[in-house]
Amino acid sequence: MVKLSDINENNYEACSGLMCTQEQCEFTNSPVWSLLQAAYASFKDKSKLYCISDDNRVVGMIRLDFSVYDDYYMFTNLIIDKSYQCKGIATQAVRLALDIFREEKKFEVVRIHVAMKNTHAIHLYKKVGFVSTNKFSEKGLLIMEYSL
Ligand SMILES: CC(C)(COP(=O)(O)OP(=O)(O)OC[C@H]1O[C@@H](n2cnc3c(N)ncnc32)[C@H](O)[C@@H]1OP(=O)(O)O)[C@@H](O)C(=O)NCCC(=O)NCCS
């Protein structure tokens, strides 16, 4: 069963070792960078990094931004370790992330930024219900939205 749980002393080392393929590295931040970023005060209470596990094995991470932006939620830094990709885990993890946002009841929209050439990620986001806004971030990433 896929679960999202807090990063703690039992799983942070496994999280730091998560790897995507060489070609995928440009699509997300490194897990070590995500861990460092989450540890710093500027993000405290605004966003939270979750460990993605499947049957108690650490398989990925995802960061949920609760109040970094004024009128929408966002998730970022999604990674599934290359040994566990293409098993539907990211699909389940994104659905769980949407459930967490839904329970917050603060905003009605979730946004993500994705590279146009990250076709697998775009396919996955469309499958769970995200739509393209046809707008791009400052970094040239496609902005997709989901209505909670
Ligand atoms: C994008 C990523 C998170 C997908 O994780 P995943 O667990 O493999 O995704 P899923 O198994 O849930 O797959 C979702 C869909 O995408 C397809 N897909 C995902 N990766 C694929 C691949 N490498 N080749 C072919 N299809 C792929 C699956 O077939 C599935 O489609 P389907 O349900 O219609 O069959 C993972 O490849 C990854 O960590 N990439 C590097 C980091 C990254 O790009 N993060 C996203 C930044 S926006």
Automatic annotation (TrEMBL):
Which SUPFAM superfamilies does the entry link to?
Answer: Acyl-CoA N-acyltransferases (Nat) (SSF55729)
Q: Which domain of life is it from?
A: Bacteria
Which CDD domains would you find in this protein's record? NAT_SF
List, for all copies, the residue spans of the domain called N-acetyltransferase.
2-148
The record's InterPro entries line, in alphabetical order, gives: Acyl_CoA_acyltransferase, GNAT_dom
Question: Which Pfam family name is an example for this entry?
Answer: Acetyltransf_1
Give GO MF terms, alphabetically.
acyltransferase activity, transferring groups other than amino-acyl groups
Designated name of the protein: GNAT family N-acetyltransferase
